[in-house]
Amino acid sequence: MNLRTSLAWLIVCFLFVPALRAQGQTNPNKIYTGSFGGGFALTGGNTDTKNFNLAFDVVRDPKTRNVWKATAAYLRGTQTNVLNLDRTAFNIRYERVLTDRIFAFGQLDYLRDQFKQIQFLWAPSGGLGYKLINTDSTQLLIDGGAGSIKEKNPGRTSQTSGSLNAGQRFRQKLSGAALFTESVATIWKTDDYGDSLTNFSAGLTTALMKQVDVKLEFVDSYKNKPPNATVKKNDTAFVTGFMWKF
Asked: What's residue 98's pLDDT?
């Protein structure tokens, strides 16, 4: 092999082999995926203010029948240096695929909302779900189950009750860079079915850069029986944020 041929092979190795390796690594089978970010929000209801938000979500999917999911959100706002919004919520959920359409789940919900006068609300539950539509571009799921709920309000002892819950989730890919999501979930206390909590959200996510998305989301939290008459039942938030994907 002469010098010219040797140099040609070296050029191929240095230029094309790393490129092929990088190409092979562009779509690895990740076990963990998720995002983290924050932004500004405009709210109405018990509070009308400008505020900031933080959001986080992660999914552990080893491409088997078991999937772990976790989401968390934090809203905080001040007006003339006075705190007027302070809300924290998270959900941890495990899903087990039973058939192509049916899945079982167990989850834990937590909510703390100072201005809804909820010092804490814990709600572990489990149940079954059904995939009405499950394609690469469209997903529509419903689920329902039972569990318990423990709530603490200012000036009251914590109250524990059984619970029933139902939910619906929808995802639609609008393009390769845009995604629409919508969900609604309600939990009822079995010792007073008139005391329920419903959370609704609808959002649009658009890719800004390779690992950065812009998310616009409307969130509505409705408590049918607030702790007292001075607390409004409904709280809404229009949230915007930049999300870093991993």
From this structure: 97
Residue 210's Cα: distance from chain center in Å? Answer: 21
Tell which CATH classification among 2.30.38.10, 3.40.190.10, 3.75.10.20, 2.40.160.40 matches the domain 31-245.
2.40.160.40
Q: How far apart (Å, rounded) are the C-alpha atoms in residues 109 and 117? A: 17
| Stated pTM of the model | 0.82
CA 27, CA 33: separation in Å to the nearest integer?
Answer: 12
Q: What is the largest CA-CA distance in the chain?
A: 91
Q: How are beta strands 192-207 and 32-44 bridged, if at all?
A: unpaired
d(CA 72, CA 198): 17
Q: What are phi and psi of 8, to 5 degrees?
A: -65, -45
CA dihedral of 106, 118, 200, 31, whole degrees rounded to 10: -40
Torsion angle of the four alpha carbons 236, 129, 149, 35, in this order, in degrees rounded to the nearest 10 = -50
Residues in the chain: 246
Q: Is the pLDDT of residue 5 over 60?
A: no
